[in-house]
Amino acid sequence: MSRNSMIPLNAIRAFETTIRLGSVKAAAKELCVTEGAISRQIKKLENVLGLPLARRDKQTIAATALGNALAQNLTTALDLVDQSVSDAQNKSARIRLQVAPSFAIRWLMPRLDQLQKDLPLLDVRVTTTLLNNQFDHYSFDAGIIYGDGQWTNLNTIKLSNEYLLPVASPDASKITLENFKGLTFLHTTLDQRDWKLWVEKSNHDQAISLTGPTFETLDLAVRAAENGFGISLGDLSLIYDNFRTNSLKVPFGPILETGRGYYLVHEPSHLCGRAIDDFKHWLQPQSPIQTIDAETIAQNLGINLISVSS
Length: 310
Fold this sequence. Notes:
It contains 12 helices and 12 strands. The chain is an alpha/beta fold. Strand 1 and strand 2 form a beta hairpin. The termini are far apart.
């Protein structure tokens, strides 16, 4: 059915609001116009339709039988319009997303194109921060941060388990277990805690000198290893794609499950909850925790998988 371009939409809104609220004064207040403007719009609608829609006296206005039936149908129609607009706004909502740099670079960024295809109306604005394990809820709607999942007053969904394993360039022939003490170890913290933990759980000599440079992020350390600069610990969840492209090798094991990982977090009552839910439903099925089988990978590499808690 064709749309009637002669129907004055402002007049329809004025008439429906007046009848729904019961007075010109209340309608004028809701629509932020004068009472005179409301009265003129109702008269305009009557003239266009050629129908008596309302009875007036000095104090009140009441719908005729025909006008009352029209007003009820208009209320239903305008409610549907309002709901449709609200749905569209929710579906095209913006999420300001705080992401730990290594997760952003090594996992999320390669998948943003698919996110855009799957949820074209969802505007996800990614910002990386070095606050790996802290969520800035003042500046962001949601975050993907690193830790043990123990954050108070936040909804959390675990996206990955951290599995640390030694990685090096495929061309680094001298990086072997036999040359372990003489290797250049690449670190992501000044206290060298990841390598120290890996050495301890691997039953190596804990007095070994873990000499080597420190990088700001895991991604930088792994990139240095890719370029033959030394050996780094990589998180299997973030470097799995490198195995498929043969840009990294695992010279020896074991793989160490630390009990930490990356989590999607947000405040429980955040205003853009529907948009966050849409993002969750897209993110979870393909997240590392759902797609990476560390035990099978360890078996295929011929190395052990051990846990910090064991």
